[in-house]
Design a protein that fits this description.
Chain A is an alpha+beta fold. Chain A contains five helices and eleven strands, in the order H-H-H-E-E-E-E-E-E-E-E-E-E-H-E-H. By secondary structure, chain B is mostly helical. The chains are: A alpha+beta, B mainly alpha.
Chain lengths: 279, 613
Amino acid sequence: MTALIVAHIIVIIAVGSVVFHFWSPWWWTEVASNWGGMDSTILLTFWITGFVFVAILFFVAYCVWKFRYDKNRRAEYQPENKKLEFHLTWVTAIGVAALLAPGLIVWNKYVTVPEDALKIEVVAYQWGWKYRLPGEDGILGKTSIKYINDENPFGLIPEDKNSKDDLLVDSDELHLELGQSVKFELRSIDVLHNFYVPQFRGKMDMVPGIITFYWLIPTRTGDFEVLCAEYCGSGHYAMRGRVIVDETKEYKDWVAQQVTYEKFLVENSNEKTIKLVKN
Amino acid sequence: MHEDENNKLHSKSQTLSSDTTLESAITGGDIDYLPPQELPDQDLYHSHSWWTTYVFSQDAKYIGVQYALTAVGTGLIGLVLSWLMRLQLAFPGLGLLEPSAYYQFVTMHGMIMVVYLLTALFLGGFGNYLIPLMCGSRDMAFPYVNMLSYWSFVLAVVVLLASFFIPGGPTGAGWTLYPPQAITAGTPGYNGGIVLMLISLILFVIGFTMGGLNYIVTILQYRTRGMTLMRMPLTIWGIFTATVLAMFAFPALLVGCLMMTLDSLLGTSFFMPAMVSMGETLDYDGGSPILFQHLFWFFGHPEVYIVALPAFGIVSDLLSIHARKTIFGYRMMVWAIVGIGALSFFVWAHHMYVSGMNPWFGFFFATTTLIIAVPTAIKVYNWVLTLWKGNIQLTLPMLFSLAFIVTFLNGGLTGLFLGNVTVDVPLSDTYFVVAHFHMVMGIAPILVIFGAIYHWFPLITGNYLHEGMGKFHFWITFIGSYAIYFPMHYQGFVGVPRRYFEIYDSPYIETSTIGLNIFITIAALVVGFAQLVFLYNIILSARAGKPSPKNPWKANSLEWLTPNMPPEHGNFGKELPKVYRWAYDFSVPGAKEDYIPQTTPPSAVVNAKVEQS
């Protein structure tokens, strides 16, 4: 009796998990980048692991019921079965390889940045985001922690000529152009952070002292939330931003509104002068 | 003086070997021949005072219980912290916690559960209690050091809990303690709590090393006559391999803690690059935060197996005993334990796929990680094949073992998601990870711990645990914890990040996800309540439970074959047991009973057709 109940519950867990998987409302949001390959790898993993999960639980349930205790019966005596163990080993190895191979192919793409990718710097700090675009020369000027102050919030090195035309986006909102590949150069000025947009799938920690990166191509327009995905102190949960994927025209309009470092310096000194005059 | 002792030892071992029937063995006359004892019998310290009996005891069994009770007591604090966290997540409107308190609870819950509960309970608790008994020795090799090990652990716990009472409170750095945030403003407890945490971990490692050396030396040197390595119960294999792993892994944690302590107190820059904190440029320069992550996970990943391998070993024994069947593929099981242990040192950076380390490492660590799935799968197959054509008694230890198979299988398979570097990218740092590691190294090993407690409680106290309360505890814990963690994976797919004090109504998260949070919290509270019933059962049954006969489960291993139950100091009375077979001779054809204890000589069961011993 107990054996029957236990066997049934194990079956219910197996079937219930599958039912939950297909009918629960909780699933990923529609992908908005070229990393749909990650979704397909997850689906493949689901099929293989789901099959193994259900098969093994059914086997256990069957054993619990079929071989329930009977004091007049003896268990079978079989310490080993080398042939069976060997077959199970290579079947498992093949299953694992079938998961790994597609995974590594996608990973290879993830770490290989296309040459025409637009470099955009994402700067993380406790607790917010700002961004920097390379300007007309396509090169981001060098930065250093030492230079960070009120007049130079990004810490650009003033002697570096490449920095003059860099566009400074001192706001948590970034725009991207639909279909244009982007390499995010990730920089943190304080602790670890992680630039995460759920719809883009990509993720990478931002580590003070080094520049990390990942790349993607936005594949649909929309307004997406940026979240920090590496714990960074008590404001971690509130470290949000926005990424808006635009058609080319809207994107160009947005870029045109941004201020270059050179202009920023002038504006800053103007403000100072005004302040001085006022005083 | 020194030579004298040597002579004494020599003469003692000579008298020992003269007992044995060496000659008849050489002539092939005695099927019960065993090699002579190699070491002289242990000279045990017998306590004289109340202090040395009840506080600074040197009896491994007593130390085991001390370890277990301290670990469980600390674990209860971790449990209460998890309730508070779950209440905050389900009902953010109540304003129950401040963000800083939430993060402090996250951190303390994690560290307590992984290190101070699971590691201490499996190795300090079960290790101490079972190693000498199952190996057939009188005690640990170094009982005094063993006592020091426990008291270092107590000191570590006291230092850890003291951080709740200092200004700024305990550290809120997350259990991984990643610098720079762990020691800079912006993280709760960044100047006091973190230092106490690091000191506590250092004390834990010191204490654990004293205990660990004992376990290793005892298993290698103090097994009784006939107890060859390949006759040891898998419980001992699991504990042994886990201890060896710990001896290699904990030093990485130790140096990591020492270096961070120096960074915090003396201003060195091991892990600290030039950085700005709260608008101020700090004096640090040139350190590497990723270096700490490598040290941490070089400890942290083997740590998973330090917890899992003893559970693997124990559950193998429970399944075999309660299914009345030989463990399937014992040799494969041993090699799988050893293989998993060795491989576990080559997979650590799978915790760091998106850490900013060179992304090309991803190829190597994804491959090694998925390779480790093969021996792990073999273990699962062998457990379920042990059930095949068994004679399965659905006792509480068996029920918990079955529940372990379900949860471990689930958690192991989701490991294939996270280990496969590409799949890890969208899922890392989401609730999928939280669900995965709770299922695989929280719930699964704890179910084994419960099974083991129901199994060995009669040995420790002489009484059974109450069956009815046990069943209640089992069903609520098993179904309840599955209900907590299975749906939680799907929050991860949605993209809910972990370590979020509050998620708000983010545009990409359906509001029903919040409803799921409430469900999970209720399930967690119910499961927590069942643990109180379990504790009540322990106290009640220890005092006035149903008395158990000797060897109540009809097991073969030595711990059940002591002259007294519960076993006394020195374990085995006057003479140490002699071992003639492995611990898995169940349902041997031709034998009268369905089990043959390890001490039964072949001449007593001549008709039994034993294949492997």
